[in-house]
Amino acid sequence: MTNKHSASFKALRKECHKSAKADKQANWSNVACEMEKASARNDSLKLYQLLGESTGKKKQRSTPTLLSNDNKLLTSKEDRIERWRAHFPELLHPPENDHSQPIPPHSSSESPSGYEDYNIAPQTEKQLVMP
């Protein structure tokens, strides 16, 4: 490269840097103005969205961890989709219970099993008054 081209290149590079710096400054001024407007409107959602965008923090998206029925990790997208496809029919249509044994009716005179040894009497008015 000759001196003529080198000088021309340096001038263009300097102009490009100045232009990029001016664009960046204009962008930050615009973002600051939007933040001030959101703050004045008490629009906290928009304000925090703008803050998140300006700090460059992005939400980390992770793929859901799914296990097969035999507790093996499903790693491929097709396996996960197939597992979900199998899950919803199980959820929406559970297996029928065995209704061959009818549930005996409960008599009010009988105490529920396991509570026979407790003497449960109604509380008196004195017991109900709070200290």
Characterize this entry briefly.
This protein has 131 residues and is mainly alpha-helical. It contains 4 helices and 2 strands; from the N terminus they run ααββαα.
Structure notes:
A hairpin with a 5-residue loop joins β1 and β2 (73-74). The chain has helices at residues 3-40, 44-55, 77-92, 125-128, and strands spanning 66-67, 73-74. Strands 1-2 form a two-stranded antiparallel ribbon. α1 runs antiparallel to α2 (44-55). It contains four helices and two strands, in the order ααββαα. The radius of gyration is 36 Å and the shape is elongated. Helices cover 53% and strands 3% of the residues. With 131 residues, it is mainly alpha-helical. Among the domains are: 9-55; 62-93, no CATH class. The longest helix has 38 residues, at 3-40. The mean pLDDT is 79. It starts with a helix and ends with a helix.
